[in-house]
Design brief:
The chain has about 150 residues and is mainly α. About 65% of the residues lie in helices and about 5% in strands. The protein has a two-stranded antiparallel sheet with strand order 1-2.
Length: about 150
């Protein structure tokens, strides 16, 4: 039950944080929807794993880095004053708990409340919710790009 409540809190926070992060994105600066969809597919494949990992994102970003025109698409869009490509590259590597909490905009006491004396286990959820945040940001970007048409 403690984990279920933790997941509910994290799910709400993911939506709020993704909206906050993407509020400054401009339609014209975003990568093509096909590029956003390719990366989202990598994220979804990782989320289907028992222990989600960010290797698919890392491989995608390495392939983007090799293609100059594609990389420029990812660099035009800015999140937190950083090119989207660099933001994704930095965030997919987060392992530190404090950096993860800051990225999701969490206050520790807020989301780790014990239920019946049992504290929820956060360790196994970190990668999953990092991937979910990345997916939510990409989904908002794709929606913004779609509104351009």
């Amino acid at each position: 039950m403690a984990e279920r409540l933790l997941r509910q809190r994290l799910d709400r926070q993911i939506v709020a944080r993704a909206n906050e992060l993407t509020s400054g994105l401009k339609e014209d600066d975003l990568p093509h929807r096909s590029q956003l969809s390719r990366l989202r597919r990598c994220v979804h494949e990782a989320l289907l794993q028992t222990a989600p990992q960010t290797q698919g994102i890392e491989e995608f970003l390495k392939s983007v880095e090799k293609r100059h025109i594609t990389r420029r698409q990812w660099e035009r869009a800015k999140i937190e004053g950083q090119p989207l490509w660099a933001w994704l590259n930095d965030k997919q590597k987060i392992a530190d708990r404090e950096k993860w909490e800051k990225l999701l905009g969490l206050e520790r006491q807020e989301y780790l409340r014990p239920v019946a004396g049992v504290a929820p286990e956060l360790g196994k959820l970190r990668n999953e919710y990092l991937l979910r945040l990345i997916d939510a940001v990409l989904a908002r970007a794709a929606k913004l790009k779609g509104e351009q048409r």
